[in-house]
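I have been asked to look over a protein record a colleague put together. Alongside the sequence sits a line of tokens, each denoting a local backbone shape. Please read both lines and tell me whether the tokens look consistent with the sequence. Take the sequence as given and treat only the tokens as open to question. I have pasted the whole thing underneath without changing anything:
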Amino acid sequence: MARIKIDLPAAFPFSFQMPVRIQDINYGNHVGNDAILSIIHEARIRFLGALGYKELDHEAGSGFIMADVAIAYKGEGFYGDIFEIAVAAGEFNALGFELFYLITANRNGQTITIAEAKTGMICFDYKARKIVKLPADMRARLETGK
């Protein structure tokens, strides 16, 4: 059976902590796959916000649109866990980039990897409804996370 392999970057310039909410728990009594996608969305918004960007309107009326997502589930998350979510940008091209995510939890003195993920982000002009180029200065800020 083929498995998704995500090559994470060596460093993550941005991270934050987020408690697992009861609404994140599914019938298996662990964090559901849909909740991981929602957490990734939250992480993307926080990462972009830390750089002074908004997902829907960053420069000259354009924003970002997610072209694809890949998630590799590595461990179980439970209610009461505090997730550490790390984010980094990479794999840049003329129109967009990838955002990489590493979700971990510290439990009983051990760091447990919960999920690894990446989202393909494309610059998109929402008014004209078309793909646009990624500005060079934005790329530089995304690369450094500052």
The beta strands are 14-19, 62-73, 82-90, 96-107, 110-125, 130-131. The helical segments are 33-50, 136-144.
